Amino acid sequence: MTRERQGDTVESRTRASGAIAGGSAEAMLVDLTQYLWILWLALVVVFVIIELVTLEFTFLMMAAGSLIGGLGSNLLGWPWWVQIGLAAILSALLIFTIRPLLLVTLKKGADPTPSNIDALYGLGGRVVRDFVEGTGSVKLDNGETWTSRSSDSLREGDRVVVTRISGAIAEVALPVPQTTESDITPKE
């Protein structure tokens, strides 16, 4: 009797290893779906890393959708196709609902004051060295002195406005005279 039991055990082991070694697609699919949670965690980590580089909340929403939809449904034991579908639906829902609100909130606290080169456009200044062949020096209203170019013939003391910054050279022009309502209305 012990011999029969031993034979059954060896035979059952042979059958089990044959199914695995034979490469039954169903057996392999079950094996892979058991470890699908690792794929979801890796995907979430990749999305978070990409989000840290881009800073636009798109990949953060995809990470949240993958975490909640994909990993959450995996932990509940739902099929792989439900996990993928739920992750995609939640990611799209978060991208189109939560992301715009986050972007508006983020930009609400931003300082609207232009800085660096953007702050120089339209800034006034005074010519400190006559322009020769279109090149001269201008002291801007912020106190900086710039090498300047202009198509106008400018003399020391002329008032100018910055129109463009090209590297370390400010391109300037004569200011456009401001018109007032009294200039526009006809006099009787």
Automatic annotation (TrEMBL):
<dbReference type="InterPro" id="IPR012340">
    <property type="entry name" value="NA-bd_OB-fold"/>
</dbReference>
<dbReference type="Pfam" id="PF01957">
    <property type="entry name" value="NfeD"/>
</dbReference>
<keyword id="KW-0378">Hydrolase</keyword>
<keyword id="KW-1133">Transmembrane helix</keyword>
<dbReference type="GO" id="GO:0008233">
    <property type="term" value="F:peptidase activity"/>
</dbReference>
<feature type="transmembrane region" description="Helical">
    <location>
        <begin position="80"/>
        <end position="98"/>
    </location>
</feature>
<keyword id="KW-0645">Protease</keyword>
<dbReference type="GO" id="GO:0006508">
    <property type="term" value="P:proteolysis"/>
</dbReference>
<protein>
    <submittedName>
        <fullName>Membrane protein implicated in regulation of membrane protease activity</fullName>
    </submittedName>
</protein>
<feature type="transmembrane region" description="Helical">
    <location>
        <begin position="35"/>
        <end position="68"/>
    </location>
</feature>
<keyword id="KW-0472">Membrane</keyword>
<dbReference type="InterPro" id="IPR052165">
    <property type="entry name" value="Membrane_assoc_protease"/>
</dbReference>
<keyword id="KW-0812">Transmembrane</keyword>
<dbReference type="InterPro" id="IPR002810">
    <property type="entry name" value="NfeD-like_C"/>
</dbReference>
<feature type="domain" description="NfeD-like C-terminal">
    <location>
        <begin position="118"/>
        <end position="172"/>
    </location>
</feature>
